[in-house]
Amino acid sequence: MGRTLIQRITIGTRGSKLALWQTNWVKSEIERRHSGIEVDVKVISTKGDRVLDVSLPALGQQGKGLFTRELEEAILEHRVDLAVHSLKDLPTELPIGLKIGAICEREDVRDALVAREGIGSFDQLPQGARVGTSSLRRQAQLRAMRSDLVIDPVRGNVDTRLRKLDQGEFDALVLAAAGLHRLSYADRITEYLSREFVLPAVGQGALAIETRAADSPVNEIVLSLNHEPTRVACTAERAFLEGLGGGCLVPIAAYATIEDGLLRLAGLVARPDGSETVRGQRQGAVDDAQSVGRYLADELMSRGANRILVRE
Predict the structure, then answer these.
(1) Are residues 115 and 97 part of one domain?
(2) In terms of domains, do 214 and 257 share one?
(3) CA geometry: angle at 91 spanning 97 and 163, to 5°?
(4) Do 70 and 84 sit in the same domain of this protein?
(5) Residue 158 domain-assigned?
(6) Residue 288 annotated in active site
(7) Do 102 and 122 reside in the same domain of the chain?
(8) Which of 102, 167, 241, 268 has its CA 20 to 30 A from that of 282?
(9) What is the pTM of this model?
(10) Catalytic, out of 49, 81, 89, 215
């Protein structure tokens, strides 16, 4: 790693508290692993940060790259050297000239229930309780279990969402446990929702470092932060999502693990109202993650996911 002559690196990031936490963690890791390299942080506003009055599904195809496009433009224009993303926000198709230089070790992948005082678990939510989530994936799985719940969209950063809960706008929120942990809000978690209960989003809990594909010195540095088991698992999940057509217009979930030397992938496609769900599992060789994801996507399509994915 000492071969590089780079002395300064600039990371592009969104300005939210969570994005800054993630970026500053990457900054500290680069500086810790590569003495003599100074890392600067440049905050860049994305469309997703500015458009807060429209739900993500309502944006349709306009929502593609909602939280990443401006950061990617900054990398391509050499205004920054790399960007740190929550992997679940990163589209499966990257702009020409960019690559995922590293995927860092995954945090807790589970979703978490954050409920108002007096509610100790999901089962204790009262009839007709109002639950806030911006995710169609969560909405579909929650409705499949509790059709009585009122699921309403909630946008904004974690602090904003928690404030809305505390002000009585919701009875509960469902948020990614990883974000709550990173922002030291673990004490707000009422219940961790198991992966069998609510299957996570593709790439949930993982950080992706996006770089210029041809920037060998930066890629060499970034590679030191890569966690290969996480990368393999997320590669299978993203191949599954890509095989289904990707996007956030239809509830899609996936989670992969490496167990006993095998890659195991679980996937789901559902209708937003939870009325129909197609689930499946696939396992294969660790070095064949792309194929595992593609095969599971094809299997679910043949079992009815194709009907769900067709939008009139």
Answers:
(1) no
(2) no
(3) 130
(4) yes
(5) yes
(6) no
(7) no
(8) 102
(9) 0.90
(10) 89
What confidence score (pLDDT) does residue 247 get?
A: 60
Tokens for 252, please give them: 């899609």
pLDDT tens readout for residues 192-232: 999 989 999 999 999 999 999 999 999 999 999 999 999 99
Instruction: Give yes or no: residues 85 and 216 share one domain.
Output: yes
| Number of independent structural domains in the chain | 3
CATH number, domain containing residue 259: 3.30.160.40
User: For the chain, how many residues are written?
Assistant: 312
Question: Average of pLDDT values for 287-295?
Answer: 97
SS3 of 252-311: the string is EEEEEEEECCEEEEEEEEECCCCCCEEEEEEEEEHHHHHHHHHHHHHHHHHHHHHHHHCC
pLDDT tens digit string along 9-50?
A: 999 999 999 999 999 999 999 999 998 999 999 999 876 665
Please give the residue range of the domain that contains residue 31.
8-106+203-226
pLDDT digits (tens, 9 = 90+) for 154-203: 878 899 999 999 999 999 999 999 999 999 999 999 999 999 899 999 99
Q: Are 94 and 75 in contact (CB under 8 A)?
A: no
Q: Whole-angstrom distance between the N-terminal and C-terminal Cα of the chain?
A: 53
The amino acid at residue 184 is S
